[in-house]
Design a protein that fits this description.
Layout lengths: L1 E6 L1 H8 L5 E4 L9 E6 L5 E14 L1 H8 L7 H7 L6 E16 L14 E4 L18
Parallel strand pairs: 1-3
Antiparallel strand pairs: 1-6, 2-5, 3-4, 4-5
């Protein structure tokens, strides 16, 4: 399964340059996910690539920082502010990266697109799973 994550453009570039090999999250997926589709937030506002998930670490924030900071792509101060007052932290270890040759403008989709606050599950056409017509409830 795939998820679409909203990621700030500065961090997207660090992912593509491999300076950032972990993507940090306060919450994590309930379903098994193997691919992350990258939505680069405004001002870019495009789907720019994807990466496979190598693994997902879960621990208290300071332990996560100690395990991942070398390839965090962020400062310790930023990390601490992001996880302020949180007991759990997740670090998605980035696997293989595919930067799309031509970024995708979601305004061109034939369905309404709203960037997720955190993430949502998507099909191969980037349609949020909850919007797929074949998953609509049927009446008998």
């Amino acid at each position: 399964m795939k998820v679409l994550l909203s990621i700030k453009p500065e961090f997207v570039e660090k992912i593509f340059s491999e300076e950032k090999r972990y993507e940090y999250r306060k919450t994590i997926f309930k379903q098994k996910v193997d691919t992350v589709v990258i939505y680069s937030t405004m001002p870019e506002g495009r789907i720019v690539g994807e990466f496979s998930i190598d693994s997902i670490l879960n621990d208290d924030p300071e332990s996560i920082w100690n395990k991942t900071n070398r390839y965090s792509g962020i400062t310790h101060g930023f990390f601490k502010e992001y996880f302020n007052n949180k007991e759990n932290a997740y670090a998605i270890k980035i696997g293989d990266i595919d930067r799309y040759e031509k970024p995708i403008d979601p305004k061109e989709f034939d369905f309404p697109f709203t960037a997720p606050q955190s993430f949502f599950y998507v099909d191969d056409d980037y349609r949020p799973i909850s919007q797929r017509i074949d998953l609509e409830p049927t009446l008998f």
